[in-house]
Write a structure and sequence with these properties.
225 residues; alpha+beta; 4-stranded antiparallel β-sheet; 10 strands
């Protein structure tokens, strides 16, 4: 119970409002929040919208390394000593984002336990996701990787049942995210639709049956099936 006269800190309110070292910004669809190679001195928090993270190799090949939504941080590498951005962040839809300077972020983490817990929970969840992605790339077929990615993009498990994937993700983007070709993704998407695992008419809708197929390793999700 809060003591009389003391304001209870609300982490969600903190990241949603302008304050010392914080700015609320709006980005239009396809607009960069920052680009690979930019100076890294700010952490960002997505209030509304989706942001795509991409990396460009020395040979000019671009790869999608993540798609982030409301309630997620990005650009936190500056907290770990990164002087320059190692990826590009691009708004996939119109976004509202809070920019928090490194100094303001450090001050909040030291002063406010609830905010520190919120940020730590994000980092732990992100690290677990990275580990799962690595295992996925090492041991699973491209078909199973695509099925898992569709489930993640549909926020399976966060709202009781899969949600329509919005904004719609192109086959090229899906191919980059799972490390295969667009033609393979097209083949698997058509296969999933014929099996009743997804609806794919302009927008992708994932069914519960896709999760069941992944969890129980049904024959239709074996490579070459």
């Amino acid at each position: 119970m809060a003591r009389a006269g003391k304001t209870v800190f609300d982490a969600q309110v903190f990241v949603a409002k302008v304050g010392a070292g914080k700015t609320v910004l709006e980005f239009q669809k396809h607009q960069n929040v920052f680009a690979q190679g930019d100076v890294a001195d700010t952490v960002f928090y997505i209030q509304k919208g989706k942001v795509k993270m991409t990396v460009l190799s020395d040979l000019g090949k671009e790869a999608v390394v993540g798609i982030l939504g409301s309630g997620q941080f990005f650009g936190e590498g500056c907290m770990n000593g990164h002087k320059l951005r190692i990826s590009t962040a691009t708004a996939m839809v119109d976004c509202v984002v809070t920019a928090i300077t490194k100094d303001a972020m450090l001050a909040a983490l030291h002063a406010e336990q609830k905010f520190s817990e919120m940020f730590m929970a994000y980092l732990l969840t992100r690290n677990s996701r990275i580990e799962e992605d690595l295992i996925d790339q090492l041991f699973n077929s491209s078909e199973r990787r695509l099925a898992r990615m569709l489930l993640l993009l549909a926020n399976f498990g966060k709202a009781g049942s899969p949600q329509p994937i919005s904004p719609n993700i192109s086959q090229e983007t899906l191919a980059e995210m799972i490390g295969t070709t667009r033609s393979r993704v097209s083949h698997f998407m058509n296969k999933f639709r014929k099996l009743g695992l997804i609806d794919y008419n302009g927008h992708i809708e994932v069914h519960n049956s896709l999760l069941s197929a992944v969890l129980h390793e049904k024959p239709q999700l074996k490579e070459g099936g």
